[in-house]
Design goal:
Largest sheet: none
Distance between the termini: 49 Å
Order of helices and strands: HHHHHHH
Strand content: under 5%
Number of helices: 7
Structural class: mainly alpha
Number of strands: 0
Length: about 140
C-alpha cells in the first residue's frame, strides 16, 4: 500500500512541479522580459530540486523527528503553530514559494511521524507562505495598504 501511495504521489507531483516551474517564468518570457523569466525558471527549478533532495536524503525526516521531539508534550496545535511562525518568518528574507518549498517536506514528515493528517500541515504551510504581506518589509505594496 505504501508503494502505491508513493508512486501515486510522484505521478501527481510531476505535472504540478512542471506547471509551477513553467508558469511564472513563461509569463515573463511572453512579456519579453527574458532575463527575469530565466531567473524565475532557474530559481524555482532549483528550489524544487532542493525540496526533492531534502526528501530523498532523509533531511526532512531527521528535522521532523527533531521538531516533533521538541513539541510532543504541547500537542499537534503547537506543532502547527510552530510551522506557521517558521514559514512566515522565512518569507521575510526569501520569497513565499521558497519558504513553502523548504518547510513543506519537514511539515509533512512531522505529520506522518505523529500519525496526523499531512494535508492539514500542507495547508498550514501554504496559508503561512501566503501571509508574507503581514509585514511591510517583504513587499512594497504592503506599505501602501
Amino acid at each position: 500500500m505504501a508503494t502505491v501511495v508513493t508512486e501515486t504521489r510522484r505521478a501527481a507531483a510531476i505535472p504540478a512541479c512542471l506547471f509551477a516551474w513553467l508558469l511564472p517564468g513563461a509569463g515573463h518570457l511572453y512579456l519579453k522580459r527574458t532575463v527575469k523569466g530565466l531567473v524565475f525558471l532557474g530559481a524555482i527549478g532549483t528550489l524544487f530540486a532542493l525540496g526533492v533532495a531534502m526528501d530523498q536524503t532523509g533531511t526532512a525526516k531527521y528535522l521532523s523527528q527533531l521538531i516533533t521531539g521538541w513539541t510532543r508534550e504541547w500537542g499537534p496545535n503547537a506543532l502547527l503553530s510552530g510551522f506557521f511562525i517558521l514559514t512566515v518568518a522565512l518569507t521575510q528574507p526569501m520569497s513565499n514559494q521558497a519558504a513553502a518549498i523548504l518547510v513543506l517536506p519537514i511539515a509533512i514528515e512531522s505529520a506522518v511521524h505523529l500519525g496526523l493528517n499531512p494535508r492539514t500541515f500542507a495547508m498550514m504551510v501554504a496559508v503561512a507562505a501566503s501571509c508574507s504581506y503581514l509585514t511591510p518589509k517583504n513587499n512594497i505594496l504592503s506599505w501602501i495598504v
